[in-house]
Amino acid sequence: MIQQPGRLISLDAMRGFTIAAMIVANFPGSEEFVYFTLRHTKWNGLSFTDLIAPTFLFIVGVSIALAYGRKRTEDGPTGELYRKIVIRSLKIFAVGMFLNLMPDFDFSTIRWTGTLHRIAIVFLVCAFLFLNTTWKQQVWICAITLVAYWLAMTQIPTPDVGKVVLEPGQNLAAWLDRKYLPGRMWQGTWDPEGILSTFPSIVTGITGMLAGRWMLSRASPTEKVSYLMTTGFFTATAGYFWGLTFPVNENLWTSSFVLVTSGFAALLLGALYFLIDVLGYKSGTKPGVIFGANAIAVYVLADIFALFFYRFKFGNLPLNEQVVSGMIDIGVQTELASLLYALFFTGINFIPAYGLYTRKIFIKL
């Protein structure tokens, strides 16, 4: 059933534009002036920004299937392959720790979780699952994990509260982090990338692997598009209805959130695959492909560049505040000024990404 397809330009572009969106959302010109949909929802709900992280994890899953698909059909995985997977995961995790410590490197306030940390864990677990389980077993793992997480969060009382609650800092996941998660937590008493919510985030990666496996099949391009679009629609719909009792929530990475966001990611991949790889409409995809070629490296560079563009003071104010204030003074709407600076900063990050791409340098963390 498995074959090696040509390189999917649609997946490269999707990865790159997702990273670009992540930079725009993470680095507004002003934290005070941000369009609603470019903010993470405070608790229940879904904004554009809430879709970015799960979409990237979905892409990680698709990439695992495309990269290791042949390993399941030849002589099987080797110890050397497992070693490379573990080393890559450790490198991504280590870079995440480096970013958490910047710029002061104060180990007394160290945080052991974050975006790259979660990517590292999801990649490690999903890669091992892909090499050692069938797609049917992966579907069962998804179903059991999501149901178990739902039951745990909605049926087990939080020990120090004495009842079942899903509110910030009072739910079972927050209690588990306070008890067992070392170091500083992002929100003081809880962490959105904590211990318990990592399990459903792994399911997000598995949904990408399932989509990737279908892309490896001998199905025709139109059948692949049909599968992605149909599955994406029904998955997102199922997540919506599950969300009526277990709310869609990125901070908790609820089971309904997994289904809604994985469904969206499948729909997006299906649409891009149809337009770019099937119909050949590649105009405008180049920036995404360039960002996507060194996606994690660009993400890291953005954090490093931010020290100059957001923290280094020119006079009494950092550059971002000066530029945004200047635009507001000449009549630019506040949220638009903030967005324009974020887009400018994203363009700054495009420069080294373009340099690496043209020199065929691909940094694989």
Automatic annotation (TrEMBL):
Residues 7-158 form the Heparan-alpha-glucosaminide N-acetyltransferase catalytic domain. Pfam families: HGSNAT_cat. The chain crosses the membrane at residues 51-69, 115-132, 139-156, 194-215, 227-246, 252-276, 288-310, 336-357. The keyword tRNA-binding does not apply. The keyword Glycoprotein does not apply. GO terms for molecular function: acyltransferase activity. Keywords: Acyltransferase, Membrane, Transferase, Transmembrane, Transmembrane helix. InterPro entries: HGSNAT_cat (IPR012429). PANTHER family: LD22376P. This is Predicted acyltransferase.
